[in-house]
Design brief:
By secondary structure, the protein is α+β, with helices and mostly antiparallel strands. The chain contains six helices and seven strands. The protein has a seven-stranded mixed sheet, sandwiched between helices. β2 and β3 form a beta hairpin. α2 packs across α3. The longest helix has 14 residues. It is globular, with a radius of gyration of 16 Å.
Length: 188
């Protein structure tokens, strides 16, 4: 359980992630209990009710990082946004209609990326990010990030993400930056 031990990242589909829900929950609950998130037990339970629905999507992708001794270290998961996604409707910043266009294949929505504190600043988040996007066919990735978490903001920017607006991603949410990363040129 020492942070210096090797970390292994496993890519998962929805079925595998569902079987590893306990590990995903542990990482999420610990990482997001900290300020500024301050997620409660009820918040974690609500998130994992959504998770149980999300893992049933055929296009769901996840990555789970574990230490050599099997300790859950970090998580990442998401899925391509459908043509009827409500993600863009939460923006408070106007963006062009072409940017908002979705078809179920264009944009990968990165729902969660988290690493437990003892394993941060060791490249685990980047490895999770790369694993979940390995062999991606989408042309871009979209995520929401709190502007008051400088480490996450710095990581996303160093990986090539650009802020395109701001949103309240769900009712009662704090303001988030909406960030996008181009993966490949759109096919025409």
């Amino acid at each position: 359980m020492t942070p210096q031990s090797a970390v292994h990242v496993e890519r998962m589909n929805g079925d595998a992630a569902a079987r590893a829900e306990e590990a995903f929950t542990l990482v999420y609950a610990e990482a997001f209990a900290e300020p500024p998130y301050e997620k409660t037990v009820r918040d974690v339970e609500a998130n994992f009710r959504r998770f149980r629905s999300q893992v049933r999507k055929a296009t769901f992708r996840a990555a789970l990082a574990r230490s050599d001794d099997g300790e859950p270290v970090g998580i990442a998961y998401g899925y391509p946004l459908s043509a009827s996604t409500g993600w863009w409707n939460r923006l408070i910043t106007p963006v062009a209609d072409e940017l908002r266009r979705e078809d179920g294949h264009r944009t990968f929505g990165l729902i969660e990326l988290a690493v437990r504190a003892p394993w941060r600043r060791q490249g685990v988040a980047k490895r999770l990010h790369d694993a979940i996007l390995g062999n991606a066919t989408e042309e871009r990735v979209l995520l929401n990030a709190r502007p008051d978490v400088p480490a996450a903001q710095a990581a996303y920017r160093s990986w090539g993400y650009e802020k395109i607006g701001e949103a309240y991603p769900w009712d009662g949410a704090a303001l988030h930056d909406v960030m996008i990363l181009g993966l490949r040129k759109p096919s025409r």
